[in-house]
Design brief:
The protein is mostly helical. The chain folds into two domains: 2-170, no CATH class; 199-277, no CATH class. Helices cover 65% and strands 0% of the residues. The chain contains twelve helices and no strands. It has helices at residues 2-6, 13-37, 43-73, 79-99, 101-109, 115-119, 121-124, 145-170, 199-211, 222-232, 240-248, 257-277. Helix 3 runs parallel beside helix 8 and helix 4 (79-99) runs antiparallel to helix 8 (145-170). The longest helix has 31 residues, at 43-73. Mean pLDDT is 82; it is low at 175-190.
Length: 278
């Protein structure tokens, strides 16, 4: 699983998280089927599996699913709104830990005297769980507490990720519109650039590159180019096809105003450099 995950290098952040999730879920399916077809040799091995092995894998699933959800829900408003959104996520983590404070203290204390209650399937079903997933627990392949432990393990990493982004938004020297590098991001070490003029201008550029067959030897389609530009320039294009229809409806002399203006400014720059060199 780790080798497969390391090989994932999708530059689109959402697709990157989805690819990671897929690998983890495939691994968990393999483990689930194995548990259904085989018995643990003894209680000690069963406890080890549900306390030490499975939660380590499930915690990764929780992390990437949460990152994906945060990315989907990411506001495009002011810095204040973005910080408020992230702080709300942090508060959610705090509430979960407070609601499970007894179990959290037990795990973090390193104790093992209650392991038979928490991590043996035959005993775990006798304990009430109030989380939303409680009704979906399959006691043939889990104890419920193995998932609770995975969530607690994941929260530490999610908290670090959220705090990292909040700090970047508050610190002008780090700020790059909610897209700072992190250990969970394929863009580590790469600075983002934000598209700061109209979306229609960017659509002109996208279609210009598409018609010029300039990307991937002409095989890249509009959807692929759009997705790439959204990620590179940190912008969400609502409907490029509709925008291009609006561009086509413009009067012919101003139809591709951005590309025309860019060409004029480039000519002006070249003329200036030519004159200064003389």
């Amino acid at each position: 699983m780790e080798l497969k995950m390391k090989s994932i290098s999708n530059e689109n952040k959402i697709d990157f998280y989805i690819d990671k999730i897929k690998v983890i879920e495939e691994t968990l399916d393999i483990l689930r089927n194995y548990i259904l077809q085989n018995n643990f040799e003894n209680d000690e091995i069963e406890i080890y599996y549900f306390k030490n092995l499975k939660p380590t894998i499930v915690s990764k699933l929780v992390i990437y699913k949460r990152f994906l959800q945060i990315e989907y829900e990411k506001p495009h408003g002011s810095t204040k709104e973005k910080i408020a959104h992230l702080e709300c996520e942090l508060n959610r983590l705090t509430r979960y830990c407070k609601a499970n404070v007894v179990f959290v203290k037990y795990i973090r204390s390193g104790k093992s005297n209650l392991d038979q209650d928490y991590f043996l399937r035959r005993n775990a079903k006798d304990h009430q769980m109030f989380e939303s997933f409680a009704s979906e627990i399959d006691y043939t392949t889990g104890t419920g507490f193995d998932y609770r432990l995975a969530v607690i393990q994941a929260h530490d990493k999610i908290e670090h990720h959220l705090q990292e982004q909040i700090d970047a938004l508050k610190n002008p020297s780090l700020k790059n519109n909610f897209e700072i590098p992190s250990q969970y991001d394929t863009q580590v070490g790469k600075k983002k650039m934000n598209w700061t003029i109209s979306q229609a201008d960017l659509v002109e550029l996208i279609y210009g590159l598409y018609c010029s067959r300039a990307l991937n030897h002409g095989t890249a389609d509009i959807k692929e180019i759009t997705s790439y530009f959204e990620d590179v320039f940190n912008v969400k294009l609502s409907n490029v096809y509709r925008t291009f229809l609006d561009i086509k409806r413009r009067k012919s002399f101003e139809r591709f105003s951005f590309i025309s203006s860019m060409a004029e400014k480039l000519e002006h720059l070249a003329d200036e450099n030519f004159i200064s060199n003389e």
